[in-house]
Amino acid sequence: MELKPGLSALVTGGASGIGKAISLALGEKGIFVTVVDFSEERGKEVASLVEKENAKFHPKLGFPSAMFIRCDVTNTRELAAAFKKHLATYGGLDICVNSAGIGTSEPFHKDQTENSGLWRRTINVNLVAVIDCTRLAIQTMQAAKKPGVIINMGSASGLYPMYVDPIYSASKGGVVLFTRSLAPYKHHGIRVNVLCPEFVQTEMGSIVGSKFIGLMGGYVSMEMVVKGAFELISDEKKAGSCLWITNRRGMEYWPTPIEEAKYRLPISKSRRKVPFKASLNLQIPQSFEKVVVHTLSHNFRSATSIVRMPLRLPIKPRHVLVKIIYAGVNASDVNFSSGRYFGGNDKDLDSRLPFDAGFEAVGIIAAVGDSVNDLKIGTPAAVMTFGSYAEFMMVPSKHILPVARPDPEVVAMLTSGLTASIALEKAAQMESGKVVLVTAAAGGTGQFAVQLAKLAGNTVIATCGGKEKAMLLRDLGVDRVIDYKAEDIKTVCLSNSTLSLLFTFS
């Protein structure tokens, strides 16, 4: 998410410490801020400072660019009212920073009360309220039908023990794992991340002895904390991420990929496909059949014929022989058979005849030539070279794409799947939280495009012709299907002023 003027944010614990610093930094970006805190005097002061920064971007507004709401974050009713007022004032919620937190001033084992101990209050403020705020933030973002980012304030003490305050450490450890468990919300356009700095020189941090702070490398600067928060907001790839900040190591994400691999479970047997095992005694015939283009024509049937060819052995060096199991049929086959994919005049095109037809296929490696060391006989493979309408293909080994199984679904992933992926993710640099229009969406590439756009957390509008196709697209998760046989595409698109990316396939 780009931090730009006009966005809105709600910050709990925004009257002091890290919450105050983030509120002011957001104001410097021209972002509207709701400061939620229990301290009225300090909260109003922060809101006033944010308004002064916002005046540089919004000189004439009919509403406050920042406001303070007094709230006890452990009171769900007050908290819900704060989110409701923010939504009513700014029309949405783009960023929520849950920064309210306290420490425990006495050992928890000395508590003599039934339910009112300070340690219990610490859990309620640091963990329960964060869960409540996250819940309300998600509901607010969904109600506004806009993507958003939630930053929960953790602590380095949520990653390793803090012997002087085990209750604080427990509460922050809960925040870390709660947040990391929310990674799947990215599919709904909402990213939740957690920030875990070591000691920062706030009122709470200043209680810690200077000798210990020195051993830890000194206080982490507030500038580095704000930088970390903004990184988690801006980086669309971060969802369920934990950013650990120390003076000794700088900013790093935890756990590392190596640590993460230690606990990640393999795919369960019920979901795992049975590994493909091909016979190593594949019979290689003396001849095989293939489809060739013998005359240039847009009529594929009249332009092609099936011919039997001798299978030339031995296999060329650095080549492999693939036994084709499934080949892909493409709309572009007719362009290929009419010569549109070749340059030159008619005479040059005629000199190419006959040439092999077919763009993509999956099969099994039946034989390998000299100097091929990384591919073995029996390996399932995909190919994207001319000549796949055949029983066998001899292909340079560098063009082989090893796959898990030679299933027909793999063929669809080749031309259609890669076209959609490259167009959206590489060419268009697709982000989350956008509105994406896909035309001809019920076709092979279109079906991949709408699913990729949804998985990235976008709102998807798709066009098609016919009720059955419209039903298919709705099943794939499309938010708005336009059946151009029943309604006008231009009218629908003009009514959606937030359209940000067009993917056309025809």
Essential attributes:
506 residues; Rossmann fold; Quinone Oxidoreductase, Chain A, domain 1; 3 domains; eight-stranded mixed beta sheet; 15 helices; 20 strands; ADH-like_N; oxidoreductase activity, acting on the CH-OH group of donors, NAD or NADP as acceptor; zinc ion binding; Quin_OxRdtase/zeta-crystal_CS
Task: Report a brief summary of the structure.
Keywords: Oxidoreductase. This protein has 506 residues and is α/β, with parallel strands linked by helices.
Describe the structure.
Helices cover 34% and strands 21% of the residues. The chain has 506 residues and is of the alpha/beta class. The protein has three domains: 8-260, Rossmann fold (3-Layer(aba) Sandwich); 287-406, Medium-chain alcohol dehydrogenases, catalytic domain (Quinone Oxidoreductase, Chain A, domain 1, Alpha-Beta Complex), CATH 3.90.180.10; 414-503, NAD(P)-binding Rossmann-like Domain (Rossmann fold, 3-Layer(aba) Sandwich), CATH 3.40.50. The strands form four sheets. Strands 3-2-1-4-5-6-7-8 form an eight-stranded mixed β-sheet, sandwiched between helices. Helix 1 (17-27) packs parallel to helix 2 (40-54), helix 4 runs parallel beside helix 5 (166-180) and helix 12 (408-427) crosses helix 13. The longest helix has 26 residues, at 118-143. The radius of gyration is 30 Å and the shape is elongated. The mean pLDDT is 89. Keywords: Oxidoreductase.
